[in-house]
């Protein structure tokens, strides 16, 4: 497999340098660019052919949310994933970032090994959404039904609703398969079918629609 091509977007030079050293130390990924503003991140995502952008939310010129929205809306960047960095408990924009098209979020003071694992997870097409923090954030900041999807759980079968609930709780395809007594491939097929029915870009948007529809509530986590 080819190395994951990572673009780092953060307005702090030292932070970018530290992340770059960490990413380059892994044998399965490489840094293909560094951006100090949101506009630079969008431009480099196009020119550097990045697979994944590690995006800080708070940046000058264009913040990480708007940069994520531009990347997600660009058909030429359809395969580019965005992993948002947030300062948990103080950043009130994480739900908007997920709505904008981010595939997950990570707390900025996370352990180095966890950052590398997060990059691998998101690059592989999984949403990085820790169940506890996700529930609390959505409960606190979700206000109006504005998820970028075309349908709701009513269009799903009972089994698909069950799978959607497990996705919203942060389970991987392997864990969903174990919970339902099916193979990871079957679980993946269910998830893909659900995304197609709901018009969701990725698993992160499935989490949003699950919470907004009331299928999953923070108290059920």
From TrEMBL:
Name all Response regulatory domain ranges.
5-123
HTH luxR-type domain location, by residue? 149-214
Molecular functions (GO terms): DNA binding
Task: Give any single GO term for biological process.
Answer: regulation of DNA-templated transcription
Q: Which SUPFAM superfamilies match?
A: C-terminal effector domain of the bipartite response regulators (SSF46894), CheY-like (SSF52172)
Residues with the modification 4-aspartylphosphate, per the entry, are 56
Going by the UniProt record, its keywords in alphabetical order are: DNA-binding, Phosphoprotein, Transcription, Transcription regulation
Name used for this protein in its record: DNA-binding response regulator
Q: Which organism is it from?
A: Streptomyces spiralis
